[in-house]
Design goal:
CATH class: Mainly Alpha
Low-confidence stretches: none
Bound molecules: fe (ii) ion
Mean pLDDT: 96
Largest sheet: none
Structural class: mainly alpha
CATH topology: Ferritin
Radius of gyration: 16 Å
Strand content: under 5%
Helix content: over 70%
CATH superfamily: Ferritin, core subunit, four-helix bundle
């Protein structure tokens, strides 16, 4: 019974890991390819976000190992938009998806008796919410 719940949790964490890898690569790509005024104003922010998403990758990888499995670390496809507004919209989609998925993972961690992990996942929700709010703010004032 408990094993089945851990299995479900592991499947979810593995898909979270893939999404975090996608976010890391997407932010890294965007921070490199931006030209014009965006290169000056927004590239440093995107580069910093890439670093934060990489920390999420490391966290999830370690958790998957701690629960007895092996993390799958392969490069997923990511958004290769070159238009700044499209870039930020792609990022916002990914942040919103992350929040929804982590809410589900919190429930699964609780059901599996993994209280410490549940708390850490809630912290991830708080971080992804900050990422989402920052993007919403920029896109709201777009002209
Ligand atoms: Fe993340
Ligand atoms: Fe994020």
């Amino acid at each position: 019974m408990a094993d089945r719940k851990i299995q479900k949790l592991l499947e979810g964490l593995q898909s979270d890991l893939e999404r975090e890898l996608r976010a890391t690569l997407q932010y890294m790509y965007q921070s490199s390819v931006l030209l014009g005024v965006g290169a000056l104003s927004i590239s440093p922010h995107l580069r910093q976000e890439a670093g934060e998403e990489l920390k999420h990758v490391a966290f999830l990888s370690d958790q998957i190992v701690a629960l007895g499995s092996t993390p799958k670390l392969t490069a997923p496809k990511f958004g290769e938009a070159r238009d700044l507004k499209q870039m930020l919209e792609n990022d916002l989609d990914l942040e919103r998806e992350a929040i929804l998925e982590y809410r589900e993972r919190v429930k699964q961690a609780e059901a599996a008796g993994e209280v410490g992990l549940k708390i850490r996942l809630e912290e991830l929700i708080a971080e992804e919410t900050e990422h989402m709010r920052a993007l919403e703010k920029v896109l709201r004032g777009w002209q």
